[in-house]
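User: quick one, fold this
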Amino acid sequence: MSRARAISDPTAPSIEALQQPFTLSNGTVLSNRLAKAALSEGLARRDFSPGSRIKNLYRRWADSGQGLTITGNVMVDRRAIGEPGNVVVEDDRDFADLVEWASIVKSGGSVALVQINHPGRQAPRTLTAHPVAPSAIALPGSAGVFAEPRELTHAEIEDIIARFATTAGILIRAGFDGIQIHGAHGYLVSQFLSPLANQRTDEWGGSPEKRRRFVLEVVRAVRAEIGTAALGIKLNSADFQRGGFSEEESLEVVHALAAEGIELLEISGGTYTSAAMLGVDPSMKESTRRREAYFLDYAEKVRAQLPALPLMLTGGFRTAEGMNDAVASGAIDLVGLGRPLTVEPDVPGQLLDGSVTSSVVRPRRSGIRLLDNLTELVHYTVQMWRMGDSKEPAPRRHPALNVTQYLLRNGLDSIRISRRSL
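Assistant:
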């Protein structure tokens, strides 16, 4: 269907808001309001360099049509790995690889940001034997998958802040347009913000102001390194745990981040023990799921308090109508799409030209919740691996084949890790 026919069709949903360009405060222009959100690709070489497979994946996504592309999390320290296949950038050893990767991501006209991250305690013991965290508190219910962390010293905290800045600077020099700090989903930045994970009584914890010091110092260090390049952050609206990082405290953090001049806030929510970002958290209201955008209520609160802060919302969007309404209402500026692009890599452009009106991403389900949640997560990962091997996604492939492939590559421990994320 042509764009002209789609727009003239009186039964077709409006997509006008999605088609509009958007300019970040540093002058970076996005061609439309759709963004490829960060996904953990698991495609790095064994030496943590990007390699050909992750380039193949992003080559497939380069012409998908989104105005913004955010890579999966790139770790700042090879001693702290969050998932099998993470890329790590500590120095210039893989600079030529990074230059090529940046060029590929941008080749179709998309603006390219890299998400950078440190897992803290959320590091599988098979990958990180001696994890560190704000406090020596193990991840609840981790069943031995994650080792008990050691509390970071002041000097180590300062070193990690410097590592974020170093990684960011290298990536900008390699040609990426900007950086996104991963401050959500229970990783280190999120751990510092959480009163459950951060029980320090020094200058890095003990009050909301001190708990947010780490993320603000990371933002300042990265900004000093990347200058006027785009700087964003992915932040939890809440971690959905009793006594944890609350929505009220999250709003206070957002005010502090806005004062630092960030170019983009991406809103998400949840942790490994309460995976609201996947739409599987039992506390999430059914009405929220039906509304598509899992955290739209929170985005509306941020917009009311900070109307000039650019907002991106990821999680739950499936129809062009739902996406367009969220942008047209003024609640958000950008719609983040993650899992849909693993099974329908051309869906952003198809939504924008009206040739499709929704994105259907779920694999076959058995009706057994635990099994279905596990096979669903593996399903999306395997689709990215297929594109990394220059194959097309196979969304109708039997779940047992996907799980077998996942096990052969990452081992039984990776299945245990995946279960903890659901």
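User: anything notable?
Assistant: The first helix runs from residue 3 to 8.
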